[in-house]
What does this fold into?
Amino acid sequence: MASYIKVKLKPKEEDRLLAGHPWVFANEIEKAPKTLAPGTLVEVITHKGEPVGRGVANPTSKILIRLLTRDFDQEIDDAFIAGRVRKALQIRKGFGDKHQTNGIRLLFGEGDGLPGMIADSFGETAVISCFSAGLKPFIPVMSKTFQENGYKFVYEKSVGEVCVKEGMAEFQDWLTDPGKLPISFFEGKAKFQSSPNQGHKTGFYLDFREARKRIQDLSAGKVLLDAFCYTGAAAIQAALGGASDVLALDSSQTALDEGSQNAKLNGVENKIRFEKGDSFKVFKDLKKGGQMFDGILLDPPPLAKSAHDLPAARTALKRLMGQALDMLNPKGFLVVGTCSHHFSWTLLEGVVREAVEESKRSFRLLERLTQPQDHPINLSIPETEYLRVLVLTEINN
Ligand SMILES: C[S@@+](CC[C@H](N)C(=O)[O-])C[C@H]1O[C@@H](n2cnc3c(N)ncnc32)[C@H](O)[C@@H]1O
It folds into this structure.
């Protein structure tokens, strides 16, 4: 039996935790025991000594403890972590057939009871990212569980600012025999290649899958602009849906090169022009040049990484929306997304409504989309809801 260090909360700090939120911040505890190290197992108790939960600590992180269970009889060991992974795989059974894809998020951190862990699958490869030094020692058992459940290859990509915040060394490499890079997979009719080693995140934005499907459904015969295209996934789905011409912009040349390869793979390279640029600037030139589009997709990177960034994020999105509306043909459609949990539905809809009102045009809100079911939202943890997408079509007055 493992031993657990007791950590006492300050008075009245337990409500959020007892309501299901798993993060314990350093300023919420009475006094951090000196023996806490990254990965130390802990038992958190209220100031009065009542049980709150068991979890893992990381004294170098602002999130001092991530709770993993409320049950003080539950051992946090390999068997427990393997059980959580198996459960996550079980709730995704049939997901690929239903959504006609073999690109599926397998672990979504707090949404799957494994705070700080992400895993995406592309065919028979699983790509794991660990953003919690506390869970790092359990990576081998997670990898083994994926292999036992049909994922022949496992790649770990734990890199970036989050690692620095967690005090973790960056790491990326195969945890199994090496598979092939880039990794091939499919989404509906489209074939894609994803490069975890050089791309963003695990290599691909699986979370935008449903938005891409809507764009495809609206695209037949249309001239489109995909303003933040990454590796061209939405532009390709649009072209496969019959779009006649797509301008796909991104600031990353690596992403655009991969996008061109993906377009060729799908036989739509003649329909998509990939161009490098800063969309905020390129929009001005496109407008000056009198370019017009029947459909515009705005899926910028997270504009608000913290609540502090919200005013600037709001201004940036409003400007983008205004410019997009100026370049949108009558009866056109607009898809606008934000991928920051700070940017609430109220805020997003407010910005979009203001821009639409200023354009003196009328749009119907066809659909609100959030992240798909393989990115499960944990209702007690607002941070797990982060993707919000509005689909608008112009009302023909
Ligand atoms: C959320 S991703 C888009 C994902 C895409 N919709 C998909 O389906 O794969 C945002 C993209 O915006 C790009 N980006 C960031 N700043 C940019 C800018 N100022 N202008 C153009 N692209 C930018 C990033 O390189 C990234 O590829």
